[in-house]
Amino acid sequence: MEAIDRPWIIRTYSGHSSAKDSNSLYKTNLSKGQTGLSIAFDLPTQTGYDSDHPLAKGEVGKVGVPICHLGNIRTLFEGLPLDKMNTSMTINATAPWLLALYVALAEEQNVDPSKLRGTVQNDLIKEYLSRGTYIFPPEASLRLMGDVVTYCADHIPKWNPMNVCSYHLQEAGATPVQELSFALATAIAIIDEIKPRVTSKQFPIIVGRISFFLNAGIRFITEMCKIRAFVDLWDDILLNRYGIKDEKYRRFRYGVQVNSLGLTEQQPENNVYRILIELLAVTISKRARARAVQLPAWNEALGLPRPWDQQWSLRMQQILAFETDLLEYEDLFDGSAVVDEKVRSIKEEAMIELNQILANGGAVKSIEFMKTRLVESNAERVRQIESGEIKRIGVNLYQETYPSPFVNSETSVLTTKINEHDQIKDLWHWRENRNEDQAQTALAKLAKTAKLGQNILPPSIIAAKSGVTTGEWASVLRQIHGEFRTPIGISTSPSNNVQGLDDLRASVDAISSKLGRRLKILIGKPGLDGHSNGAEQIAYRARDIGMQIVYHGIRFTVDELIARAVDEDVHIIGLSILSGSHVELVSELMAKLPDYGIEKTPIVVGGIIPDSDQEDLLELGVSAVFTPKDYHLNEVFQDIIAIVEAQLSKANA
């Protein structure tokens, strides 16, 4: 039987260390059957800093590839013809800049930009809610998002100029209904932004280029129904809210990475089955099938996957696409009463949530409301895992296991050699050898364009060709638009639905009595890591058990956090770091504590931290290290209280 559907674009999300190393990785992956690139950028690049900025220390090349200038992009794509590539760039706050660099490189290769194919994520609203790589205030960000969309419509018509990303919403705890409604609210915000800026003839074509990037969890029937609900609601919104008659512009087009939130450090080999089941959710229903898929690797809860681990995930997609008969049939679920009822229920609940957001003024005006909803949903998810209502094999069920032959603390994840110094030397060499007059003229043109509210893509492309750097581009826009700090989403009202809180509250009361005041904890996010979910849940539980909390969100320098600890006179400092920069940042903090006179304040650290690094942190003087396996927050807080108790006893001895 012949296939009636084509395979989806098969990708792996990758990039690390340097442009040269990432280029080698991409060529290897493409040679193994990958059919598209999905670029991961490091945090300085994502947040608009050059590699030599103080906030970039320890972050360069950690979660993606560092891109400071056109020379880095040349190296990244060396030997890869852009007119034949389908490139997805997971970039948001600096999306106009990375797209400008890509266009500048294409023109260097004599490639007509109108032939470029790919996607730039360009979704800042979800950054405020879940991922944290925003820079500018929401209104300015929406304007920049619109600049990318309208420029692509005129000059890069085959490019997807926005990927409405609900992936990180689910990672932050969103229910299927919230993922659907929040993503549609974001799409409506960008459509409303671009509609007055284009002609009526252009409008449906531009809207037709907007795509989505979704998540799929382990409850794969619900997830499949969620996506069918997405298909229906997107069609309805475009037809009835915006009057787009042509069906080809109302198609729901999406790519997906399946859920990383459910991957476990305990018995990590089980993650292979989780990933496969979640892959089925986005492929088994033809009407709701993804057009591009990238899968996490089985060991991502342990650290950075090796090339072989990425290949294993790649083979999973290829076996499903090419060995099974999945692509030979029309939709298997059309006419199913069970599926139809589930889809109807999700759509109904999502519209209630969406209408509330729209009544509040839309997604941009509802960021604090949506952030609070996500933190509360995630707290409920954590509670259900702790209580066993949500079952996790190897975590809270069937914990007995043989030692895994796959896991060896020395070799089970990729250890990269990131030479931050070489990247900074390259940056300095680039600045020294560019035409400085041209660069400054380009920056002045960029500033003038931004002040006038005109589209910043044309001057950004000129700036890219003139040798301007990522940090310089973002600095100009920071001066014009300012910076933003998102709400933390944690109310002051404690919850009472978690088991075992009474004993912990009694313990907090007892230690507070000995201290002479309420036990106070500083929860800090040093560096550029924007994954705040863990820090938020620690703050949420600390509030519930009666601690005083000092938590102000993401992206602080070590000095800023220490100064805040001094000002607030906290009893313990908890650091949350998931970007891999824990050793560098904790080393800096421990070295500076004596300068502020608080070297005796206990420090605890949480994050995805390999065993060898845990030993290093403890040797630095950290009192405890917590990783994803420490899912039971009450036990974490018992340890924290015991650490403060021990420090108090030592001080009184």
Brief summary of the model shown:
This protein is an alpha/beta fold.
Explain how this protein is built:
With 653 residues, the protein is an alpha/beta fold. 49% of the residues lie in helices and 8% in strands. It has helices spanning 19-31, 43-47, 70-76, 95-108, 125-131, 138-155, 167-171, 176-194, 202-207, 220-241, 271-281, 307-322, 337-359, 367-387, 420-433, 436-452, 457-465, 470-481, 501-515, 533-544, 558-568, 582-596, 611-620, 633-652; strands at residues 9-11, 13-14, 37-39, 86-89, 117-120, 159-160, 163-165, 211-214, 254-257, 292-294, 520-524, 548-550, 572-576, 603-606, 624-626. A 5-stranded parallel beta sheet has the order 1-10-9-8-7. Strands 2-3-4-5-6 form a 5-stranded parallel beta sheet, covered by helices on one side. The model has no long low-confidence stretch (mean pLDDT 93).
